[in-house]
Amino acid sequence: MKRELFDTEHNMFRKSFRTFLEREVLPHRKEWEAAGIVPRDIWLKAGKNGFLVPWVDEQYGGTGVKDFRFDQIICEELGRANEAGFFIPLQNSLVAPYINEFGNEEQKKRILPKCVTGETILAIAMTEPGTGSDLAGMKTKAVDMGDHFILNGSKTFISNGLLADVILVTARTDPENPHAMGMFIVERGQKGFERGRNLEKIGMKSQDTAELFFSNVIVPKANVLGDPSQGFMYLMKMLAQERLTLACGAVGGAQAAYDLTKSYIKERKAFGKPISKFQNTRFKMAEMKTEIDMAQVFVDRCVMDHNKGTLTGDIACQAKLYTSELACRVADECVQLHGGYGYMMEYPIASMYLNVRIHRIFAGTSEIMKEVIARANGL
Fold this sequence. Notes:
Layout: H1 8-25, H2 29-35, H3 40-48, H4 68-80, H5 88-102, H6 105-117, E1 122-125, E2 141-144, E3 148-159, E4 166-172, E5 181-187, E6 193-198, E7 209-220, E8 224-225, H7 231-267, E9 269-270, E10 273-274, H8 279-308, H9 313-338, H10 348-356, H11 366-376
Parallel strand pairs: 1-4
Antiparallel strand pairs: 2-3, 3-7, 4-5, 5-8, 6-7, 9-10
Helix pairs in contact: 1-4, 4-7, 5-6, 5-7, 7-8, 7-9, 7-10, 8-9, 9-10, 9-11
């Protein structure tokens, strides 16, 4: 289905970013996966080419063009390239927006320019051992000591956990109120802040995912993001964009798996003819194509609503729920259509299958998405 979403400038941006991936990222994929992390210099290269938080205002080094379609293009191209390690959307769409939206002028001037250049890599630390998606069950706490906070606790499953120079850490600020929490800027090298191991995952092999530990970390008031009692509200406000971001990538990943399989089934033969000629194969491909197109139309509409400021949290959850489930179904069907070769890591569909599985879990599980959607519909 022809998309009417993008104009010439968007198409040029897509071509430029796709070329960047082909030249600077994809040739190094196996090396980075073996290392379990991407090198810092790829972030610097991305910044030099204008791919990191380009939407920030000009006084902070960006273009000031706040059009989520550019973020959408990055998500789609990463998904279609099956590049799950170089997690640009985490910087662009998930973390930097908190600093831009809730940070004061000093914080924005201090942090955002280096985010644009790639000198500063961002992360956000919400999830804790034993709590998962339950933010109200958070145990990390920050105690107000007058001119600073004392931060104690631990986080897990933190993307960019090893690379990050600036980490937004959520912590409870009132032991009597589970929704009273703050967001605290913790920087590389602070006393009492330690990083754990690089967690071994079934997919996203080159994406450093780590445990973080905070033991009596002194957080100056200059590193408190906004109101230290309103962190929960900040999260609720920004989670819609986070879930839309992941939906964009999930559709891109589903389309990539479909395209790859379409080429494979035309070449692979069984019983004397290409497997694309078997009715079951053709019907499976027809079903997937229909669902991918439907998902793309819905996500495109969500992007435009988000640009207008009218996208609601429950609709973003619908987008994330449907596309993440779809990406997993498509990857599974495509492995099946590859037969035994689909189970071999030398075939790209195998790594696609492993990489997309996390979509049903991060940024809120599918079950959490259903709960939000149900509540929004009066259930």
